[in-house]
Each structure stands twice: as structure tokens, then as C-alpha cells.
Amino acid sequence: VQLQAYGGGLVQSGGSLRLSCAASGRTFSNYHMGWFRQAPGKEPVFVARIRWGGRSPYYTESVKGRFTISVDNAKNTIYLQMNMLTPEDTAVYYCAAAPDALKLVTGSVDYWGKGTQVTVSS
């Protein structure tokens, strides 16, 4: 099973990036998929989640109205569209999968992907 995140990069404050996470190796139809981020020197924190079928998106407060999580089942890919980025969004972003929403939000996930670095300059 593999979750491969990509799409990070360097962007100026106010800019946008779209992260992708390609999922493979099993069926995720009963899973909740999500994104976490880890800033330097800090623990990973939950950012957003969505059911594999595309329902019930949920966001941490700090990204509401700026970030959008979505899923393309045909491509087995989860996306995180990030708009109005600020330096506080700088972190390594990870995608993850868990069998229910609570486990995902609390980090008790079954699968983690390798991270992708997002750097927002002021």
C-alpha cells in the first residue's frame, strides 16, 4: 500500500498550491482520507479529511475557507487545493488513510504517505 504526496513547492504569501496524493495497493472505498502537516520542530497536526466517495469534507479551523479537499476516485487521488497561503502554512504535508473519521483526525491512521514540502514566503 502506498500513498504518494506531491505538488509542494515555494510560493509567495497570498498564492496557491494544489497538493495531490496518489493511493495504490488496496481498495480505499471504506476509508477516510486526509491531510496533515508538520511545521519545523512541531508535531504533525490534522488539516482536512474526506470520505473516499467524496462526502463529508472537514477542515481544521485555521484553513477553513482557504483550503479545499477533494477526491478523484477514477484516478485514486486525493487533492488539497490551498489558496491565500500565509507563512504559517509552511510545513511538510502528509496524506493519510484511516477506517473512520475519528481515527483520522486523531492521527491513528492505517497508512501514511511520504510528505511534500510547502514553503510560503512573506
Give an overview in words.
The chain is mainly beta. It has 1 helix and 11 strands; from the N terminus they run βββββββββαββ. The strands form 2 sheets. Strands 2, 4, 5, 6, 9, 10 and 11 form a 7-stranded mixed β-sheet that branches. The protein has a 4-stranded antiparallel β-sheet with strand order 1-3-8-7, with no helix packed on it. A hairpin with a 4-residue loop joins strand 7 (67-72) and strand 8 (77-82). The longest helix is centred in the last third of the chain and has 5 residues, at 101-105.
Key words describing this protein structure:
122 residues; mainly beta; 7-stranded mixed beta sheet; 4-stranded antiparallel beta sheet; 1 helix; 11 strands; 50% strand; globular
> Could you list the spans in which at least 5 consecutive residues all have pLDDT below 50?
none
Percent range for helical residues?
A: under 10%
- Percent of residues in β-strands: over 45%
Please tell me the overall pLDDT: 96
* Structural class assignment: mainly beta
